[in-house]
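Page 42, continued from yesterday. The earlier attempt failed because a stray header line got pasted into the input along with the sequence. Redoing it now with the clean sequence only.
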Amino acid sequence: MVQQLMGDGVGVFDLRDEAWVPVRFTDGTRARVGLRELFVRAHEISDLEVPVAPAAAGLLRVCAAIASRIGRPGGVPLADEDLADDARGWEQERGAHLSLGRFDQAMVDAYFDDPRWADRFGLFDSRRPFLQDPRLGAQCVDAKGQPNPSGVNKLVFGRPTGVNGAVLFGHFTDGDPVPVDAGEAAWHLIAQLYFGPSGQCTPRRITDHRTGSTDAGPLRKSVSYFPWAPDLFTTLVLCVPAPTGEGDPSADACPWEEDLPDPLGAPVPLSGPGRLLTGRARHSVLLVPDAEGRQVVDAYLTWATHAPPLEVRDPFTVRYRRKDGGWDDREADGSRALWRDLDALLLKDSAVDSLRPPALDRLPAGLLSVLRVRAYGFHQDGQQKDTVWFQATTPPVLEWQEEESPQRAGQVLRCHRAAEDIGARLELAALVAWKTATDLQAAEAERVKIDRRKPGPWAAAAVRAYWPAAERRFWETLDADDTTTAGEALFVAEALAALDRAIGPGARADLRVSRARNRARNMLQALAPVRATI
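This time it went through. Structure tokens are written below.
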């Protein structure tokens, strides 16, 4: 069935050697490379330029898993099972890898040409297409046994599907789908496996088991933080997760390194970097190419397993404490600037409010002065709504980590908390101002009851104006001697300015609005140790 769908003689589009990953080299030139060239020339690459942030977040995990398999001459791969219970030995081996400054080409070729999986990097291979399940062509069929694909629009993030889909990045319809280039389809394949939605999907029949629902991808709604070096080689080596000493390291495998999984079977324990980084997908995908094997014209997207996901700590996410005492990964928010997570990246536990990504622990001290943090996020809900994806990169701030510079890390924490506290008070003050300006009873009341279903326009406008200004003040405050007093005064001053900007000079001529404004300003000024004025 699958071979019929793909057609005889279709090229497999070998991801090892086809040019599909956009990169920028250290000399400023740009190109697309295959996986083999990406690793061989990783020391010459300064950045990944995949324009789909969720695909970049997934691709980095795939590449880190591959990096854990590529050894050095005279050494062993970082995923070697003999290092699983030897933390010191693992760090020494990582240091030896880094000291080489590049991946050895013979070692790269030995991995990609290993006869056990050399034929599994073809995007359109009929037997084992990369990160796909060829069984879907026979399992996703309608009541008459005919193929029941999901459509290429379902594959590509940003395209509408069905009759109510929003148009984000172009005009596409299910009745007239536009094919997507094979390389770009690979981006979206990876993004779907990590960030795909929960809920209804194309039904899949296995024996008499047929269902059309799936769980959300393992990174759905998340933001990932990667240690970011001046070259991709160093970045990938640093992204290899340190061993945890749990599970059976000999059972570690990436999807292309083992047989196809049983969708109805129990999940395999996440015992090493391969499974941890690439083996947690809840979706199953199969791409359908055109006759030349250069474009994707259709796709199947369905469930991969309904077994409960295994609890695991992702190496690249910040965790925060819920009100009930449990922990969740920080959700991506397209309106939240990266600097607002800086204390969570620098402190070991951010006073037990959040947990630093494990990938930012145990970094080589000699590299901290040049390491930045790259964030990739996808603002989504848990089901079908995708809002915006984003990427951002910090300056070289990891030398401020608590272990190396506890005073500076503490300054970051205090400044950030001051900014957050005043930002929250600004939102409340703007809500109170709107309520008291538009409700006579509220204006006379000592305590104002806020209905957040009717917030009015001032709160959102004030917050939008405050946070960019607060970021500028944040970096200024880090250089001040008295970070607590100076920072709070500056943040309050920006909050007052943002409040006035949101209300507008014309509205303030109204007596009720003027009184409401003064009440809100008093709420903000009460936070400052030194009275802030505008």
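Notes: Residues 1-8, 162-169, 530-534 have pLDDT under 50 and may be disordered.
Reminder to self: strip header lines before submitting.
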